[in-house]
Amino acid sequence: MLLGAAALVRTAFGVALVAAAAPSPSPGPFDAALAGARARLEARHGRPEAIAPLAELLALEDALPPRALEPALRRAAAAGAHPLVAAQATFHLARLLDEAGDARGARAARASLGSFTRYAVVGPFGEGRADYARVLPPEAEAAAPATA
Fold it and tell me: How far apart are CA 110 and CA 99, in angstroms?
């Protein structure tokens, strides 16, 4: 029992030593571009010109680790941002959250945009142009369709 505990302590110490000695990850090839675009976005915060650095950031998305853009998108959508820039950032933030599996966060982001979340498709009715003038039963109903 004592021998097993000593081996466990040595193993834990060895793992901790290796973890402490491991070099920190080197910056990726796109980290400088990300930092530059974030700085330009911050410098233009609150103005419509902020859309250009936002587009730069979004162009880098495939080259960056998952969710690396989330802080920048949240900042671009924050209070004080130009409304059109904030809407674009919020739209992409919702997509990013959906991809990460955060459905609740994505729904909350989309709610601020006023996007349609529920809809119904009705039709087509009849056969060709001859039926355009004919009123069919669903078109004659006065009440709105039932919701589920």
Answer: 14
pTM, 2 dp: 0.65
Closest CA to 93 of 61, 48, 45, 127: 61
Distance CA 55, CA 109 (A): 19
Cα Dmax for the chain? 93
Q: What is the mean pLDDT of residues 40-51?
A: 96
Measured CA to CA, the distance from residue 78 to residue 72 in angstroms comes to 10
Q: Three-class SS string for 67-122? A: CCCHHHHHHHCCCCCCHHHHHHHHHHHHHHHHHCCCHHHHHHHHHCCCCCCCCCCC
Q: Which residue has the tokens 């030593």?
A: 17
Tens of pLDDT, residue by residue over 65-100, are: 888 999 999 999 999 999 999 999 999 999 999 999
